[in-house]
Amino acid sequence: MDLLSIILLGLVQGVTEAVPLSSKTQDTLVYLKFLHGDPSMVVPILLYLNVGSIFSALIYFRLEIWHIAKAFLQKPLDIRAHANGKLGYLFTALLFTGIIGMPLLFLEKKYFPTLDLSILFALMGAGLLLTGLFLFFQKGAKVRQAPSATWKDGVLTGALQGLSILPGVSRSGSSITGLIWRGFDSESSYHLSFLLSVPTIFMAELVIGLGGGALASLPLWDGLLLAFSAFVFGYLTIDTVLKIVRRVNLAYLAFGLGAIIVLASLSGMV
User: Which of 88, 208, 230, 248 has the smallest count of CB within 10 Å of its CB?
Assistant: First the structure.
């Protein structure tokens, strides 16, 4: 893979992972339609890009993650205290993501490889339309802040995040929606969604990548460069992107992109 393609894919991943527009859909579109890539390489490319996203989030949230880990290690048996804190939120959200997402992942692996590309893109567009609906109907008092997160918030957040296994459905968009419905303000919702991305993407890498050996199908050097590119752009754009999305209603952008992709796929343009 040439360097320009690696930089472009890293840029797309770094920016779209921070906003509720489904990074996997945008990466797939860029790779297949603009770079004319091999469809069989989509999964390993996405996995390596996600590795970069994990490290950018780890570095960005390093102090917060350290405080969560330190609090657990100091009182590992204090289940009630951990449940009523961010650790409980993360654990429950991850659990319910798996409960909803694993059956969908099984269906995706079984049926999607046999789908025509135009149908797959239509599904991606429909997923973006669903993301737009999630964002459009966000509601709640929006008075809570990130430190008040508990295991109860992880139930809805994780269940909605589990839907992001579907093409076009944004992980951040679905989790942010769940958090806003739980009454968190916009800034706290983005913050908690980003924090949740670390264990979520890590587990996805284990299940999809290492478990299925998908990473091995792409040359290691290309994969490492993709991960590094996504890491650099992800880390550099987190603050900027979060400042923008706090002020912009991305529901309309998700609707617009979803409609364009659906129409283009149905008309035979993709």
Answer: 248
